[in-house]
Amino acid sequence: MTRRLLIGAAAAILATAGIMPFAGLLRQQPSDSSIVSAANAADTAAPIYYQDPDGKPLYSLTPKKTKDGRDYRAIPAGADISFDEPEQPAEMTAAEPKTEPKAEHKGDRKIKYYRNPMGLPDTSPVPKKDSMGMDYIPVYEGDDSDDGSVRLSPGRIQRTGVRSEPAALRTIRTKVRAPGVIQLDERRVSVISMRSESFILKVANVTTGSHVVKGQPLMEIYSPAVATAAAEYLATITSKTTGGDQAYGRGSRQRLINLDVPEAAIAAIEKSRNVPTSVEWTAPRDGIVLERSAIEGMRVQPGGVLFRIADHSVMWALIDVAERDLGMISKGQWATVRARSFPGREFSGKVEVIYPEINKETRTARIRVELPNPDLALLHDMYVDAEIDTGTGEPVLTVPESAVMDTGSRQAVFVDKGQGRFEPREVKTGHRGSGYVEVRQGVADGEPVVVSANFLIDAESNLKAALKGFAEGAQQ
Q1: What residue spans carry the region label Disordered (predicted)?
Q2: Which option is the CATH number for 195-303: 3.50.30.10, 3.20.20.100, 2.60.20.10, 2.40.50.100?
């Protein structure tokens, strides 16, 4: 309130009270500043809220007492803490002539213009109020510098929760999760079939699903070709022949081997020196009987499959990995497989094969992980979930994921330059994992980047850019 307004208000009060003759004394007051000081002191003394007398974070807008009867402490406006930059009061009366706006200063900084407090694209070269009575916010030189940085006041930084963290070298551990299915190891499957026309005389008590061990009897067969080869071999080993005939004997034994006669049956012929009428066929490996086609008395043609046995001690996990994650996977990486039938149990193995094809319907690539299965818990065609550790183990420059603002085609961060200045900088990112993002270009090691409230800073920078354009247009 100016001096002329204060004197006029005081004179009006005295005239109403009927003591107009003392108006001359009013004009002889020591100074108008004392009246303003008294008014400010009265405003400052008026409490704006009440706080707990012990300093606890308990507040009230009206006088209040504690549980033990003590009064809350009154907090005047002057004692309240504010982080806002004080604004320069500049008032003009209607009686004073309008002059060119003078540059205002705060400390060593100069006020360039005033912007709308609600963020509207409206600026003014002089102080003013908006339609709701709020003062326009001053914009100082340097706040809208041409280097692209954004400047915020300490109060704005504290209220918005802006927090920075330096970029540092870290080891990123990225895990790719994908579903899969258990399959048999193709190298551990055996098929028992006849290589000559044969007849099955007897089948052992072995059925589909039975577990057999190597050398366990499966069936007895009669084969004319096997009997003829056995007789020839027996004739050669019982007669006293020359060295050339011994070579012929080795050939007859090889003929038995070519007919797939088990080694135990050949050893029995050599020991008994008799031609057997039937030959006992045994299991070639440990495993589970997947298929049994042998029936007593049946005639078997060459190539007919009688038994199929698979070793379950090692299984394959065929994992379908999304096409976007294929570039992070390589041979030798460790994978953890969890079967849905055994919650809480894990099976570990290495990536052995990456199949060179993409499923065009699902856009996935298939990889193979070998899993030890000593207790035969993993079964053929069982569904599993896999986690593949794609970490390289080498530290790379990283920043928190919250620091990167991704627009789809560009990625940027705000670098904290100190003193409330934040510089937007475009970066090139790499792998992600463990809450961090690899930065391959744009930020140096140790540079602090904003990790929280960066979108508010981005909005502030866009607003200041728009206001700067309006201000420059108004000045022109």
Answers
A1: 83-107
A2: 2.40.50.100
Q: For the structural domain made of 159-171+394-475, what CATH number should be given? A: 2.40.420.20
> pTM of this prediction?
0.55
- Cα distance between residue 450 and residue 262, in whole Å: 75
Extract the tokens encoding 239: 């007669």
d(CA 44, CA 46): 5
Per-residue confidence in pLDDT tens, the chain, 476 aa: 444 443 444 444 433 344 333 333 334 444 444 444 444 444 456 787 788 888 777 878 888 888 888 888 888 866 655 444 444 444 444 444 444 444 455 556 678 788 777 666 678 888 888 878 888 888 776 555 555 567 766 777 777 778 888 998 988 878 899 999 999 999 999 999 999 999 999 999 999 999 999 999 999 999 999 998 888 888 888 775 444 455 556 778 888 888 888 888 888 888 888 888 889 999 999 999 999 999 999 999 998 899 999 999 999 999 999 998 888 898 989 999 999 889 889 999 999 999 999 999 999 999 999 999 989 999 999 999 999 988 666 888 999 888 888 877 788 888 888 877 788 888 998 888 778 888 998 898 888 988 887 666 666 555 555 445 444 554 54
Q: How many angstroms separate the Cα of 107 from the Cα of each of 88, 111, 393?
A: 11, 10, 53
The Cα–Cα gap between 458 and 449 comes to: 13
Q: Where are the domains positioned within the chain?
A: 3-79, 159-171+394-475, 175-185+312-389, 195-303
CA distances from 357 to 90, 140, 361 (A): 75, 62, 12
CATH of 175-185+312-389, one of 3.100.10.20, 2.40.30.170, 3.40.50.300, 3.40.50.970: 2.40.30.170
